[in-house]
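Researcher: Next sequence.
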Amino acid sequence: MKTQQAVHVARTKSRRVNKAGETVEYESVLLRRSYREGAKVRHETLANLAALPEHAVESLRASLAGKTLIEATAGLEVTRSLPAGHVDAVYRMARGLGFEALLGPACRERDIVMGLLAARICAPASKLASLQWFEDTTLGAELGPVSTDEAYRAMDWLLARQPGIESALGRRYLGPAANPRQLALFDLSSSWVTGHHNPLAARGYSRDRKKGVEQIEYGMLATSDGIPIAVRVVPGNTADPAAFTAIAAEIKDLAGVAEMVMVGDRGMITSARIRALAEVGGLSWVTCLRAPAIQELAADNGPLQMSLFDQQDLAEISHPDYPGERLIACRNPALAAERGRKRTELLAATEDELATIAAAVAAGRTRGAGPIGVRVGKVINHYNMAKHFTLDITDSTFTYSRRDEAISTEAALDGIYVIRTCVPADRLDAAETVRVYKSLANVEKIFRSLKSVDLRIRPIHHHTEDRTRAHVFLCMLAGHLTWHLRQAMAPLTFTDEDRPVPENPVTTAVRSPQSQTKASTRTLNNGDPARSFQTLLNHLATRTRNTLRATGTTATFDLTALPTPTQRQALELIDQHINTYRK
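Model: Next structure:
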């Protein structure tokens, strides 16, 4: 019994010796049909195609293989063009760093989470708007239709995997190999919430300066370079020290190390938190003293005297109230001048408005201690100058005067801050300790990126605790990828590629000359335009994936546009960053 198989083109080669004794190679091009006869495969030659031109043979072979052939002179129609370059850049970085695999095993939920991350980086918006954005990019073709329920299930899937993802990131970026100084940064921020049903929403100190709305708070753990590693969401009225305690005990486990140095601001690592860290064990810290504590050190018999800064900008001091600790006093003249200027302007503005109130009281237009006090309170609270004025209010009079001694005492400490740490000097000298504390600015960069520059985490639209936590975690992961993308593509943007490290750690850091040139001329060294990170993403998006169709046919195929020189360089920079960072 014969079983017929598909017809195909077969090429056979043979060698023969001609009459001149030369070895000649012959090629036969045969049209064959294969079939099975019992247990054997037989071939039946239908025609010899050797006489046909090569292009005709190839056309026949392609046709028999099931491909649709189009005449060379046939017209092509572009049925659709979808932005692709920006999405490809995000995926290229994520896959090159092993980030996609770190999220979890391949599944529908992981695919959607990756899409949501790309949307958050390229076009930050609400989840519903992101799903609509999918359809207008290549993600729509890759993911297919994504329903709202699927997106929320993917967020739930991501939240369940948060501990494992953060542990993997902690070991990778905070472990001994990548973090020999064993440093970790932590800071807290807040974002406002829409609606009235979020259980985490509460009224508290708004770092967004958004008055009259509820908010959530979140603490960010990062490397000393400002790479987000972990995040914790707490109710909007949680005090900074309590939020710090919630994550401090997990730091060593996240990094997989026995010791870690936590860096936090003066409101985060308080004396009470320091005692709590001592109970945890293995956690050192670097922080800063509050203003009242600095004033105590600067008292007449205290160790903090202005003569310390006659020849230098920093000096180590000690005090019995801080046993076993190091205090590093710093004075920044530029900061001192700025604070003095600001205080002078605020005092003058306050006096102008107080004078207006005093004139109204004297003229009888404002009467009664209560109404007068309300007007005065609005002024001094607005400028935060209550501590610098003595006020005398009666039902018919109002007088005021400056507290010159208090103003002089505060002015004497302008530009002075005192860093407090338990890390020994042989591990971090005074200058390096100052640099470590000032690296907290890198966490502030994360928050700026999250809130306004790149990712727009706010406002929070979700109404459940789990979805709120998942949203913040998703934004943190997007911030992680954004850091890598910004670093990789810095040569094409206004980002300072090589900011010099000041020899004096107290002085303000300045941009490199190359970066200043880019900012002033708005061009790169090769004359191409310099871009911001977001405008570079927009330029990458102009590289499209086009669906084409031959005129008069229904068959289509996809063709991605060739990259522009800038787009090609961006992709090369991403590859270089991946190769460097994975070594």
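Model: The chain is about 45% helix and 20% strand. The mean pLDDT is 89.
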